[in-house]
Amino acid sequence: MDHFNCIRMFVRVVEQGSFVRVAEGLSVAPSTVTYGVAQLEREVGARLLHRTTRRVSATEEGRRYYEVCQRVLDELREVQEDLSQAKAAPQGRLRVSLAHGFAQHVLYPALPRFFARYPRLALDLMITDRAVNLVEEGVDCAVRASSVEPDANLVARPIATLHWVTCASASYVAERGLPGSPEALHSHECIGFVSPTTGRTADWVFEREGRRQMHAPAGRLSVSSLEAAANAAVAGLGIAQVPDPLVYELVRQGRLQPVLVDHVALASPVHVVYLRNRYQMSRLRAFTDFIAEIHPPEGWWTDIAPAS
What predicted TM-score, i.e. pTM, was given to this entire model? Predict the structure, then answer.
């Protein structure tokens, strides 16, 4: 087996953590991938992978070798795209992770425009509200509306700011009234959001005159999706606090109304996160630029606030 193919297989095994998954993706037998990586280890004179019955991971030497190999493969791919004029028409398949709410309310309505603009691009969307590991799960980029921990291997491109919108249905307000302050929420049904990443119920955030205030929501209903929290509020089950993209249309349609509008707080900004050595991929640039294009930089709060 030639050296280049061995390198390609090794890089994919590191990224996907499995000989079998790599073999399936390349339409070869798992033994072919195992042999290719073993041949590479013999050639470089070092053990590159830890192998267990459950998963495969890079050794310290393997991680260093992977970073160099990945950079070389990306540079080769970039040259090939230049030579084939693929920059003018990005092509290939991009694997993207994003939350249910962002997909439903922001991306899906704009996708026909994206595919019309880039007819040779395909997307594999991993719809999840948890933070994924890009390397271990083979994801090219993730759209995240959460804080991004500093990481020398990651780039987090800021896209937009969001606001936490506290809202309820007209039927709930008619029955229970409006809370006059965050403290008054203790006498209301508050729909909790249990983070799939932390497993904890997220605190609600309020801000007024530069003073930030946290509130632990208490009620009979908790959900593991912010979109589900908004839908529960529409059903009159209580008050919810969700980012503005999820409730903009619901407020415009009169199905929800914002409460405590004088205490609205900024949420974590939207980022597109990707591995530092991946941005030269023209299809990744095309996608991140498109996300920045379709998402208002200041979110939808300025449109929601007048409606309240």
Answer: 0.64
